[in-house]
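TICKET #2291
ISSUE: user wants both folds in one file
ATTACHMENT 1:
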Amino acid sequence: METIAEFNDNHGFNVKLTDEKIFIDAAGSSETIALRGLTGVGLYDDLEKYNKELEEYKKDQKGVKVGKWMLIVVGVLALFGGFPDSIVPAIFMIAGGVFLEKLVSFSPKHKKEPILDSYFRLMLSGGDRKFKFNKSDESSVKIADFINKVEDTLTAYR
């Protein structure tokens, strides 16, 4: 079998196209699919999941910023309040406000910025199969070229 095209994203996703089959090695699965059973191929981005995670992330960041400014304002008010025994706590409050974002990022409950999940999608006569891959690096152009070669191969069977 002659290899027509091959794609490897260096993150555990490898797809090889021959004149009869597609060989797929992805995280947690390895499959071989005959081209004669394939009705289509494409990319799928899970935008719904990404938008939901992005909204939660923005809410989390907004709460941190509000807390940061509250600490700074209360610290400044206590500092200028003129009470001699409130100077040290006021300085700690201002410093805590300044470094709050960095302190929160070390917390295990802190949410990381979401990543868009992308899938290599094969439409089969009995349904479809999705294989997750990392689209955020420079290999996304290669996967588009690979899909074009698969589509060219599919039209040869019709």
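ATTACHMENT 2:
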Amino acid sequence: MKFFVLIFLGVMTLFTLLISRRFVRKLHFNDTVKLYINIFLAINLLGVIGYMYARYNPTIPNWAYFLLSIPIGIIFLLFVATIIYEIASRILEKTTINSQRREFFKKTFDIGSILAATSLNAKAMYNAKHIELEKVDVFIKDLKKPYSIVQLSDIHIGGLIDQKFIKNLVQRVNGLTPDIVVITGDLVDTSIKYAKDALDELKNLKSTYGTYFIVGNHEYFHGVESIIKYVNKLNIKTLENENIYIGEKGEGFYLAGVYDVIGNRINAFKPDIKKALEETSDSPIVLLAHQPRFINELNQKVDLILSGHTHGGQIAPFNLLVKLQQPYIKGLHQHNKDTQIYVNKGTGFWGPPMRLGASSEITHLTLLPKS
């Protein structure tokens, strides 16, 4: 974990230096204005260091956690703006317009770049506060009757995702009157002792056939076994390489769940698809697997996979990097003739309270018989 923190802080420092040298230095502003911007960048970088401290000391007030979490998103968006600015500046330099007009365009472009970066940061923070309801119809072969599933994923309890957040989330879910609720990993992102108040709100989830949970990679960082034990006390069933039948016999489907693929790396709580799908013949199968890339390990028929993990990229264009690791980033996809996959963009957020190009979501899936 310390290695990750050092790498992360190193990357944030490098990004900040590039922003200063390749963006701020080239702005058509006077030296005083540039100095103030660089001071802001330095304070912002100190905020990132404070954020990493706060993540492992969750007792700090939420207002302080909020202020410390924003700088990560600011650095990332300014870094993207720096790349765009660098490309646009080079194009402008190669134009054949006279120097006076070029200087006017340069001033206008510089001011526009600062305003655009500020607006994008504000918009990203606004988006993170508003969870959208995604309604999705999925047609399943051999399904006898419709079923509704509410999928939550990547809530990341800890820091800004607190008891109040979960209480409001539970109220929204209950208003959808689902047949089942599934939580596809990364529910907890702090020590269990700090998450209990928020987790306890999940006892109030209501559905016809119950609430089911699988662990994501972040549970492994905070004591996966203790998290599973506590969640199971909340009238929520953790699916640990196992399945359960949903609905009346002969009219329902099997709901299966596996541990996250990170278990293969640490050699504990490893996913086992063969075990998870034991005795699931003659009925449709819905599989909960935290990371979409688990689909590549399937060696038998599964009708629908529900995943999360990607956050939809959370802050564009980060989704382009996520695509290098995961086969699907968000939404419903037909993987092959037998299997569909739905990837939830995440109900909460990780790191900065920002989302750009990928809203937080509650997914309301309706499984329908395929004629």
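RESOLUTION: both attachments delivered.
EXTRA DETAIL ON ATTACHMENT 2: The longest helix spans residues 62-93.
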